[in-house]
Specification:
The protein has a domain of 167 residues: Beta Barrel (Thrombin, subunit H), CATH 2.40.10.340. It contains 4 helices and 12 strands. The termini are far apart.
Length: 298
């Protein structure tokens, strides 16, 4: 009986052949870039396999989307509505910030025209008394505000500080019936007194002779007389002039330039005299301490 032996390559030779082939492929790919088309072809051929592998999960998601429950739709709708409200609130906030930014720019432009130092304040309350035109601002004695200081908005003079506390101040508007502002006409320097009459849209210019050179549209600014208001602040514009026979004075109505019922941001004006007084008060204690130290050294 004969035994038939099937001879073939030894296992060690096979391993050596695989190693040599791998080294050749690595060198060919690294040095000569010869395997890029091969990898591309293999990737193209394997694409259907990858698609078939993801097909069950994609089919499951598609079927689930066809049978979305009413509760899920309601939850999604509520979430979208809540997000919409949040976005609307943000839009309103951004609109308010943009308006405030524009108002601050106008205030900045107004403050550049003035020679006096100013600080920006905000209206926090309005007097409920219909016969008293007063507002409350968020600047007080701790900010250096004193009774009698002029208050402006971006357009003109609003009034003066009537009462102060540590954190707030009460301001009497120019439209109050007890308020008066010495003014002059910019065109010719004619002086007069502008009185409030309880109307925020109209003021009265009094003690103007019927022969005075004044016209509709003339700009009225503070004259600085009396020392209450610094000179040159815009106050009002002449709106109408009425001359009655036999009367020595004419009736003149002027429209205030400041938006008394609308302005929220205001300017508190510090005159140079007040700045000098505040500076002396701040320097006084320091100078006294310095003299005391000198005495101790001596």
């Amino acid at each position: 009986m004969k035994t038939i032996f099937v001879q073939g390559p030894v296992p060690g030779f096979r391993l050596l052949l695989v190693i040599v082939l791998s080294a050749v492929l690595i060198v060919a790919d690294d040095r000569f870039d010869q395997l890029t088309p091969v990898r591309s072809a293999i990737g193209t051929g394997l694409a259907p396999i990858h698609w078939l592998g993801h097909a069950p999960s994609q089919f499951n998601d598609w079927v689930a989307s066809l049978f979305t429950s009413k509760e899920d739709l309601q939850k999604e709708n509520e979430a979208l509505q809540a997000r919409l409200l949040i976005l609307e609130r943000r839009a309103l906030k951004y609109a308010a910030l943009a308006s405030e930014n524009n108002e601050l720019r106008q205030l900045l432009n107004s403050s550049e025209v003035l020679d006096d130092r100013v600080i920006v304040g905000e209206v926090v309350a309005v007097s409920p008394d219909p016969f008293s035109h007063e507002i409350v601002i968020n600047k007080g004695s701790r900010d250096g505000v004193e009774v009698g200081q002029a208050i402006l908005d971006a357009n003109g003079l609003m009034g003066q500080v009537e009462q102060t506390s540590s954190f707030t101040s009460r301001v009497l508007l120019v439209s109050d019936s007890s308020h008066a502002v010495p003014v002059e006409v910019v065109r010719n320097g004619l002086r007069a007194v502008l009185l409030g009459n309880g109307d925020t849209s109209s003021l009265e210019l009094v003690h103007v002779p019927d022969t005075a050179d004044i016209r509709e549209g003339d700009l009225l600014v503070s004259s600085g007389l009396g020392g209450r208001f610094p000179k040159g602040y815009p106050v009002a514009e002449v709106e109408s002039i009425t001359k009655e026979q036999g009367e020595p004075f004419v009736k003149i109505e002027a429209a205030p330039l400041a938006e008394l019922n609308k302005s929220r941001l205001i300017l508190v004006v510090f005159s140079p005299a007040q700045e000098a007084t505040d500076g002396a008060q701040e320097a006084g204690p320091a100078d006294g301490a310095g003299r005391a130290e000198q005495d101790e050294v001596r």
